[in-house]
Amino acid sequence: MFICEVEVPVRYAETDAMGIVHHANYLVWFELARTKYLDDIGISYPSIESRGFLIPVLEVNLTYKKPFRYGETALVKTWIEQYEGLKVIYNYEIYNGQGELCIEGSTSHVVVKKENFKPINIRKHLPDLHTACEENKR
């Protein structure tokens, strides 16, 4: 199982009136990590789009354990938790500089045709993505 790691500096614009990262920004961090994960396993998202496919989010789950504040750096760890040929589930853990787990989450995705948003069989239409998911899933 491959685990991707990406560091994200907490920017001032990501914080709310309480001085902590607004909850919606964790979804942006998930996307940064997921895109890097695909790059790291040899599949660029732009290459998928150029072939006429998109990978929309179906479901998001987040659990907040500790907040992040401006000036801190988050370490986002990402991996494929589940893959069965149609749906891909990514898991995420976000740690602070002290190595404490602050955020846990997951996102579920399918690959769809760009023209009509109909789900496709990844194995059949994107064999390189299928192989990479199979080789790197948990």
Main traits of this protein?
single chain, 138 residues, alpha+beta, Thiol Ester Dehydrase, Chain A, five-stranded antiparallel β-sheet, two-stranded antiparallel ribbon, 4 helices, 26% helix, elongated
Task: Write structural notes for this entry.
- GO terms for molecular function: hydrolase activity.
- With 138 residues, this protein is of the alpha+beta class.
- The protein has one domain (4-136): Hotdog Thioesterase (Thiol Ester Dehydrase, Chain A).
- The protein has helices at 25-40, 45-50, 122-125, 127-136; strands at 4-9, 53-54, 57-64, 73-83, 87-95, 101-110, 112-113.
- The strands form two sheets. The chain has a five-stranded antiparallel β-sheet with strand order 1-4-5-6-3.
- 22% of the residues are buried.
- The mean pLDDT is 96.
Short description:
The longest helix has 16 residues, at 25-40. The protein has a five-stranded antiparallel β-sheet.
CATH architecture: Roll
| Residue runs with pLDDT of under 50 for 5 or more positions | none
Question: What is the overall pLDDT average?
Answer: 96
Helix content: 25-40%
CATH fold description: Thiol Ester Dehydrase, Chain A
Strand content: 25-35%
Largest beta sheet: strand ordering:
1-4-5-6-3
CATH superfamily: Hotdog Thioesterase
Q: How many helices does DSSP assign?
A: 4
Order of helices and strands: EHHEEEEEEHH
Shape: elongated
Radius of gyration: 16 Å
Structural class: alpha+beta
Q: Cα distance, first to last residue?
A: 5 Å
How many E-type strands?
A: 7
Number of individual domains = 1
Q: What profile does the largest beta sheet have? A: 5 strands, antiparallel
- CATH class, named Alpha Beta
